[in-house]
Design brief:
The two termini are 31 Å apart. Helix content is 63%, strand content 0%. It has 286 residues and is mainly alpha-helical. It is globular, with a radius of gyration of 18 Å. The model is unreliable at 240-244 (pLDDT under 50). The protein contains 16 helices and no strands.
Amino acid sequence: MDHTASEHLELQRRIRKLEGLPTMPTVLQQIWDALRDPDCSAKRLSQAIATDTGLTARILKMSNSAYYGRSRQVSNVTEATVVLGVEVVKSLAVGASVVDSFRESVPGFDMDRFWQHSVHVAVASEAVARTVGGVPPEVAFCGGILHDIGKLAVAAALKEEYGQVMEGFDPDACEDWVEWERETFAADHGSVGLWLAERWKFSGELSEIIAFHHRPHKALANARLVTSVAAAESLLGREEPPTLEVDNTRWDPAWAGILGVDEATLEVLKADLPARLMAARSMMGS
């Protein structure tokens, strides 16, 4: 769909104002409050999550995924937090609550496909972090879950028009999705996501992943962490396309130096990913 100059300006105005965004979910605020306590316990985190019964059910489903290889099922969030760790359960809870908070705000947006891609990137990010070392795998996983939240914010701002605007992207005319976003909205989903991350009080680590996963060289304090997520998304390949658009992250050879890995290691990682994604499949249902 072609847009006139005035239509472009209107799109840009709406993105800048980001009207209609949901407020931070109450459960997410409670999770952050619990985690700010240096003595945060499994019990306190599980109590915060338990205020939302739907989220609790999703956490249990994801915790019992084959991905975590438990010999027996966990039956409550406290047990999941003890068994899997606070960081893992936090990651699952934060990602699921963010996606759920947008579900009614983004008509025409394939939320299930978005969640599937988010989980894929999270799983791949954790694998990269464990391979390269020196990068906290749990934070990489959480960053992978949240890396594309800027797309949710854009879709929420444009509402019914989102699908129509996306049809205006011509991969033959512009191979770079992020550049097309900048031309169309005067912002890309990384910068929009950073605004949301700051508004919702995400950590500096997560904010940098969200802002710079397409340009990790711009990360200020967490270059290897951000690069791990960028590299993970590039390993997924075109058989795992993102939602509704051509937003494939391409491997940058400079990342090998940042991460301290060679191409042979990356090929082993890439070959191992399908089994990891299959094990995580039960996390992807909405």
